[in-house]
Amino acid sequence: MALLTPLLCTAMLLTMTACGSGKKEAIGGQYSASDTGTRGYLPQPVPSYSEIVTADSLAPEAELAQFDMQDDFNTEEYRFFEENRPMKASLSPLSTFSIDVDTASYSNVRRFLENDLTPPADAVRIEEMVNYFSYELPEPDGSVPFSVTTEIARCPWNKNNYLAMIALQGKKVENKDLPKSNLVFLLDVSGSMDDPMKLPLLKSSFQLLVEQLGENDRVSIVVYAGASGLVLEGARGDEKERILAALDRLEAGGSTAGAAGIELAYSTAKKNFISGGNNRIILATDGDFNVGVSSESELTRLIKKKSKEGIFLSVLGFGTGNIKDNKMEALADNGNGNYAYIDSLMEAKKVLVNEMGSTLLTIAKDVKIQVEFNPAKVKEYRLVGYDNRILRNEDFDDDTKDAGEIGAGHNVIAFYEIVPYSSGETAEDPQLKYQTTELRQEWENEWMEVRLRYKNPDSDTSEKIVHTITDQHVVDNPSDNFAFASAVAEFGLILKNSEYKGDSSLRSVRDRAEAAMGDDSEGYRRNFLQLVNKAITLEY
User: Fold this and answer.
1) How high is the pLDDT of residue 235?
2) Span 182-213, pLDDT tens digits
3) Domain encompassing residue 413
4) β-strand 117-118 against 24-25: which pairing, if any?
5) Is residue 145 within 8 Å of 364, Cβ to Cβ?
6) pLDDT bucket at 45, cuts 50 / 70 / 90
7) Are residues 431 and 532 both part of a single domain?
8) How far is CA 315 from the centre of its chain?
9) Would you say residue 27 has pLDDT above 70?
10) d(CA 510, CA 41)
11) Looking at 332, 360, 388, which one is the last position of a domain?
């Protein structure tokens, strides 16, 4: 509490007023020119942020100051991806994708809803919303870095179909047991960061992280605006006054030469590399790169090259109005990292303190999932979410193909909506000439085979795990994990106005989530219910 109370004083100066009542459209049907497939959303009120779990969880006596702030011009950018389509199991029995542990979409969507705004459909990534939460899943055994749990129940938004859950639980590591860390804070101090919800919140967020570090950790600070600079190099984690003083001196101004900062950050991390340790760059920005290498494609090529140096990347997004979500997600995806959006000091505490191990320590990289559906059991299937994580089937066995990372203690959940055969309906036979389509009776109780590949953080060779899903995994009363995660997925379908949302409803979401709260000591699930109720008032 001694740490958090003074920091909350900063948070009190960062909270802004809501933008009135009633549903407001954040899209407006206008798009700005940018990278191909990227949508820019033009003028809208700047959403406010609240201390989401409740500010009094840090300081009960605190009253949050409020400011009425709006930008005249809004250029937020989100990349468009077409939703995954239903596939016939008889013709396309394989489904292959990369895992995703980013959580940015959920806290960004929260920003819109808390300010009576409709989130842009492209800002809603269902897998990130589901994986924002923790679940009570079994711990992994032995040397395998994560466990795999599966469950099948009726689909809540289409009672004629089933919903299959594949859940991964990463090995948990207590903060005190984390390996030595070589951290480089790569901080955007350009003019676009001159906003109460950007640089001041950034400073307060990193103060929280600094308080968790020890004498064996090393911290460097690289900043960039019109040019990049090294503010601090190789400070011990217990030199807190020195690190905090360096953070406190930062001021915003100038254009955004992010590529130069990335180059300097990687060279600094490499210079201070800790063998066997956690070597990571933490990039904090609004993503508004506008000098030098600045397009999404150019930044992706740069970060892909740098990711081969054994240094991981975490991206923290800040602010409103000109967020370049597409660029920040691309950097994290291609830099062996993760992406979170910080809309409040409470979110910073979640990402950098409560889930420090998940954010900073990678326990498995290039994690891929491939599912083979039994066409005798499954007529059609559709992967819910992961629209921008789809891989070619041949990529599964290709160890040169990049995929997502999983951090210590991370949960990863994926859902497939499954169309079964009706009573008396026989399995489809495509009558192929050059390959057999004979259905084996000994596998008639199997729904699918789930295969996973992963690499240990210091290895370039993958390991393989196989799980078979049978009739025994089908339940009438799904677990709390299934119930809550499926409620979040259904919420995402509604927010996206998905063509696959079926009979989904906000009240169904609320009732199912409310009955599956579990251990909600931090209040994250309680906040989810508040968002659902907010959406109900906005008449979705």
Assistant:
1) 98
2) 999 999 999 989 998 999 999 999 999 999 99
3) 86-173+364-537
4) parallel
5) yes
6) very low
7) yes
8) 10
9) no
10) 29
11) 360
Q: Provide the token pair at 387.
A: 């629209």
* Distance (Å, whole) CA 290 – CA 304: 20
Please list the residues that pair with 96 across neighbouring strands: 370
**Count of C-beta atoms within a 10 Å radius of residue 245:** 11
pLDDT value of position 321: 85
Q: Is the pLDDT of residue 156 over 90?
A: yes
Residue with tokens 């090995």: 171
Do 382 and 528 share a structural domain? yes
- For residue 178, which of 104, 267, 280, 268 has the smallest C-alpha distance? 280
- In this structure, the answer to whether residues 212 and 146 fall within a common structural domain is no
Query: For a pLDDT cut of 90, what percent of the chain falls above it?
Result: 69
Task: Centre a 10 Å sphere on the Cβ of residue 354 and count the other Cβ atoms it contains.
Answer: 17
- Which amino acid is located at 418 in the chain? I
Q: Which residues pair with 117 in a beta bridge?
A: 24
For residues 131 and 138, what is the distance between their CA atoms, to the nearest angstrom? 16
Domain identity same for 191 and 322 = yes
Q: Is residue 76 part of a domain?
A: no
Report pLDDT digits (tens) over 299-324. 788 888 888 888 999 999 999 888 99
CATH number of the CATH domain containing 186:
3.40.50.410
pLDDT at 155 over 70: yes
What local confidence, expressed as pLDDT, does residue 425 receive? 77
Which amino acid is residue 466, in one-letter code?
Answer: V
Measured between alpha carbons, how far is 163 from 185 in angstroms, rounded to an integer?
41
Please state, as a whole number, how many other Cβ atoms lie within 10 Å of the Cβ of residue 275: 9
The set of residues, in sequence order, having a beta carbon less than 8 Å from that of 148 and lying 6+ positions away, is 166, 167, 168, 450, 452, 465, 467
pLDDT for residue 305: 85
Say if CB 336 and CB 313 are below 8 A apart.
yes
> In the predicted model, is pLDDT for residue 244 greater than 80?
yes
Asked if 416 contacts 157 with a C-beta cutoff of 8 angstroms, the reply is no
Final residue belonging to a domain, choices 327, 360, 393: 360
Q: Could you give the CA distance from residue 418 to residue 380 in angstroms, rounded to a whole number? A: 6
The helix or strand, by DSSP H or E, that contains position 532, with its residue range, turns out to be helix 524-537
pTM: 0.86
**Beta-strand pair 312-318/337-342:** parallel
Report the C-alpha gap between 212 and 240 in whole angstroms: 10
CA-based nearest residue to 289, from 265, 261, 252, 249? 261
Mapping DSSP onto H, E and C, the string for 411-467 reads EEEEEEEEEECCCCCCCCCCCCCCCCCCCCHHHCCEEEEEEEEEECCCCCCCEEEEE
3-state secondary structure of 20: coil
Into how many domains does the chain fold? Answer: 2
Neighbouring-strand partners of residue 406: 364
The residues, any chain, with a CB within 8 Å of residue 537's CB and separated by 6 or more, are none
Sheet architecture: strand order including 411-420: 87-88, 378-384, 411-420, 158-170, 146-155
